[in-house]
Each structure stands twice: as C-alpha cells, then as structure tokens.
C-alpha cells in the first residue's frame, strides 16, 4: 500500500471511532499525537481506537489525543482534516456510543483491564491537573510545541555542519549550512511572540511585531538601566512577556477605542505601549532571568553532578504525571538559545530508558500472560525511540511497583550522564522533543561528538539495565505475580459462545499521558 493510502486509511479508521466529522470541533497535532476537540466524548470508542494498527494509545486531557508517533502523526493529520471536511459536507450521522463490555468475557487480569486501570489513573490525574497554575503551564506548552519541528530540523543541520567543519570537509557548503541552522534561532523570539498572542487571545501578528523588537539590531543603540541593550537580550522569555503584555493592551484598546478608529489606533497603541515596556523593562529583566537559568543549570550539573542527574532522571515521570514538566519547555529553549544545546534533556531522557528496562523485566516475569506480553512487544519499538506512553499507562503504572522501579532505572541513567557533566563532559541536545534513540542526531557537547554519543549511549544502557534489574527483583510481590501471571488465551467454548475472543486477547495498546517533548 502506498504511503499516502496508508495514512488516509489510518485517518479513515480513526474518524468514525471518534464520533464522525460532526463530533470533531478542532484538529491539531504535536510531535506524536493527533489532538482533537470533541463535542461529545461519549461517542468515542476508546478500545476500538487502540486496536487501530497505527495507534499507540490515547490520552484524554484538555483535548482528546491519539498517539500515532513521530512522523506518522504529521502525515495522518492532513488526511484526517480532509476527511472531516468531506464528512461535514455530506453531514453524516454521528456514530453510536460504544456498548459496555461484557463482564463475562474474561476472569483473569488482561492487558485490556490494565488499560482500563491506566485510564482510571489518568482520569484522576487529569482532575488533579486542572489547577490554574497547571492550566497556565499547558498554555505555555502550546506556545512552544509548534516550534519543535523547526528546532529539530535546524538542530540536525547544526550537528551535520559541526561534523563537516571538524573534518574539514565541504568548506564551501558549511557557511550555507550554518545559515540554515542559525536562521530560525536568530528569529525564534518572533515566532514565540506570534504563538503567545494567538494562545492568549490576541492578534498573533501584533505579538510577533512586539517580540521582533527584541532581536532587532538597532536596540544596540539604546540604554536601559544604565546598560546598553544587546539584540536578543531576554530571548524567548522576553518575547513571551512582551506578547502577553501586547494581548492585554490590545484587549483594553478594543474595549475603549471607538470602532471607527479601531483599525488605526488599536494596533498603534498596542505596539507602542508594549514596545516601550519591552525595551525599557522586559528586555533587561528577562535577560537577567535567562542568564540566571543558564548559570544555575551549569552550577547544578558541575557541582551536583551524579546526584542532580539521579534526582532529575528519577523524578521526571512523576513530573509528567503532575503536568509540571511543561514548565521545563521554556527553560530548554532558553538554554539552547544561550549555549547552543540544553544539558537537561539528555538526563531527563533517561526516564524513558528506565521505562524500557522495566517493561522488558515485566515481559520475562509474566511468561503466561500473553496479552500483557503482546502489549509490551508492540510498544517496545516506540519506547526505544522515546515514545513511552503506551508502556507507562498500559503496563508499568497500572501494575504499581514496576512504575516505581522504572523511575529507579531513570535515576541511575540520569546519574550516569550527570556524573560526566560534573567531570567536565557536557552532554546536550540542540533541540527538544525527541528522546531515546531518536535523540542521537541532536546530541552536542563540549568534547567532541564521539564522546558525547558514548556518554549518552552509556546512560541509556545504565537506565535499561537498572530499570530491568530493579523491576525483575523488586517489581512484583507474590500476590501481584499470582494475579497477573496467568494465561489470557480464551478457551474455544468462550469464543464459540460469544463470537469473539475474551477481553485482553486483542491489542494491548493503552491509554497514554504527556511525555517531551515534547
């Protein structure tokens, strides 16, 4: 099947399972997920969605999110949008709500029941995450997530250019590659301002216009707080603050400026007032904050080293569950702006390594549970590439102890990378979003690419082994083994009586939760 046909087939399989075109109110996607706004959540067939071959899992948050994986989601989303437009034109009737599962389908605990437990945990966590602070962090994430593809592309080009420069190859081409790699980062403040205004309900282009002041070379002729400003001072943090201010100024103008003058006065006052505050206040303050972030990150890893890495790698998955990981996105971006790479992401990526090691141990500890083993086999390739949601919410978190031991694996992997940072070998990523093996093309450091790759690979190996050992020996109680280490193969009489296999004999894909990066 051609790639286009495959993507359209995936979109066509998903659409009726989310209630049809009329039930879809909005469509977007991030690095790995198709994010849908739905009018009626009851029309969604979660289990049937998880059975779609390309679907790795589902997440219910402020939007309904279908995990398709990097690359796939960018190809399926346009096809899905086209199908929704076609469906609305023909006004199809919404699909009926899924029937309740038959409790007699199975007596033993299966991957399907694990997924249900994961969904329940996810729903409870969603309620806890619906605080004003966490909703604000989610809005911040919505500003930066659309920038990730450009960060990745430019980051890989930067790595390629650095390799060619070090080898002395293609000297006539490397300046062009440098321009491609650096152009986006030089203007990233403008894109942040645009997305910020859009997210907070203002006119996006006005947010971009105010943020553009920060990177305009002419600010070097301006003094503020007794210091001469530098182009780019304040970076993405300054752009974020400037655009938020512009939104509030614009909304104030919309309320008080007469309609006849609105088209002239509102944009002018928005740029003028926000621009003056940005130049004579925000750029200096945001610049100090950005410098403090870089200084603190360097100090943390140069002095804390293994201990800091151990804590960061071990607690990242709980941070994701609490929704607090979104606060790290502007920090990563600020570090990339300042230093060319973020030293935090490779350490945090070790949490995924611990998860992979834990899943491998669960696979071996439950040899009779074909359903859970099938889930692990199908989700493991994605886990190795840094998409860990199916393993987290389909396997380790519902089981309980394996989630804790997975965090232990992440802690040891993070400690390994942190130790080398303390010894002077910085390991960083030139972009945010990818993790696991997918992060290799984006690695950068201060002691050569070979050393950087070796340290990161060593961290992954330590995370895999530590997660596996901790889970294999400490991840299961006797009761847990008795409950889960049972066969899920349906008896022939069960299939004959119901016309379908017992619950858990199908796909084991699970509900998922936010991972970045992401």
TrEMBL record:
Q: How does it sit in the membrane?
A: Multi-pass membrane protein
Disordered: annotated segments: 85-104, 492-518
Q: What is this protein called?
A: PTS transporter subunit EIIC
Q: Which compartments does it reside in?
A: Cell membrane
| Matches recorded under InterPro entries | Glu_permease_IIB, PTrfase_EIIB_Cys, PTS_EIIC, PTS_EIIC_1, PTS_IIB_1, PTS_Sugar-Specific_Components
Superkingdom is Bacteria
Question: Which parts of the chain are coiled coil?
Answer: none
Q: Which residues form the PTS EIIB type-1 domain?
A: 8-90
């Amino acid at each position: 099947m051609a790639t286009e046909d495959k993507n359209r087939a995936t979109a066509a399989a998903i659409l009726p399972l989310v209630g049809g075109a009329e039930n879809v109110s909005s469509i977007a996607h991030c690095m790995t997920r198709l994010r849908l706004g739905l009018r009626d959540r009851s029309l969604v067939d979660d289990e049937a969605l998880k059975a779609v071959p390309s679907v790795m899992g589902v997440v219910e948050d402020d939007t309904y999110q279908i995990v398709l994986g990097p690359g796939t989601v960018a190809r399926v989303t346009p096809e899905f949008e086209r199908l929704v437009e076609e469906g609305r034109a023909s006004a199809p009737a919404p699909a009926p709500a899924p029937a309740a599962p038959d409790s007699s389908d199975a007596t033993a605990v299966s991957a399907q029941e694990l997924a249900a437990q994961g969904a329940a945990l996810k729903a409870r966590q969603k309620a806890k995450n619906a605080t004003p602070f966490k909703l604000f962090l989610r809005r911040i994430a919505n500003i930066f997530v659309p920038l990730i593809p450009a960060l990745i592309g430019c980051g890989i080009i930067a790595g390629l250019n650095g390799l060619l420069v070090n080898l002395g190859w293609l000297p006539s081409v490397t300046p062009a590659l440098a321009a491609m790699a650096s152009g986006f980062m030089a203007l990233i403040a403008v894109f942040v301002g645009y997305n910020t205004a859009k997210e907070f309900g203002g006119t996006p282009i006005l947010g971009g216009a105010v943020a553009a002041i920060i990177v305009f070379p002419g600010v070097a002729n301006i003094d503020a707080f007794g210091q001469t400003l530098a182009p780019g001072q304040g970076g993405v943090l300054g752009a974020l603050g400037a655009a938020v201010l512009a939104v509030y100024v614009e909304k104030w103008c919309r309320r008080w400026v007469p309609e006849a003058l609105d088209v002239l006065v509102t944009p002018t006052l928005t740029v003028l007032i926000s621009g003056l505050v940005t130049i004579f206040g925000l750029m200096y303050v945001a610049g100090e904050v950005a410098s403090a972030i870089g200084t603190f990150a360097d100090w943390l890893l140069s002095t804390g080293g293994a201990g800091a890495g151990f804590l960061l790698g071990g607690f990242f998955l709980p941070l994701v569950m609490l929704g607090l990981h979104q606060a790290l996105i502007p920090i990563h971006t600020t570090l990339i702006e300042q230093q060319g790479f973020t030293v935090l992401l490779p350490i945090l990526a070790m949490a995924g390594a611990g998860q992979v090691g834990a899943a491998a141990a669960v696979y071996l500890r439950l040899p009779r549970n074909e359903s859970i083993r099938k889930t692990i086999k199908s989700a493991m390739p994605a886990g190795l590439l840094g998409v860990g949601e199916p393993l987290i919410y389909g396997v380790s978190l519902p089981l309980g102890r394996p989630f804790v031991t997975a965090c232990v694996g992440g802690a040891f992997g993070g400690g390994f990378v942190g130790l080398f940072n303390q010894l002077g070998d910085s390991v960083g990523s030139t972009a945010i979003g990818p993790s696991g093996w997918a992060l290799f093309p984006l690695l950068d450091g201060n002691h050569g690419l070979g050393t950087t790759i070796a340290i990161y690979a060593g961290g992954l190996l330590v995370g895999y082994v530590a997660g596996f050992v901790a889970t294999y020996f400490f991840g299961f109680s006797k009761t847990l083994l008795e409950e889960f280490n049972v066969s899920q193969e349906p008896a022939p009489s069960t299939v004959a009586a119901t016309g379908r296999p017992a619950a858990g004999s199908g796909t084991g894909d699970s509900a998922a939760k936010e991972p970045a990066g992401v």
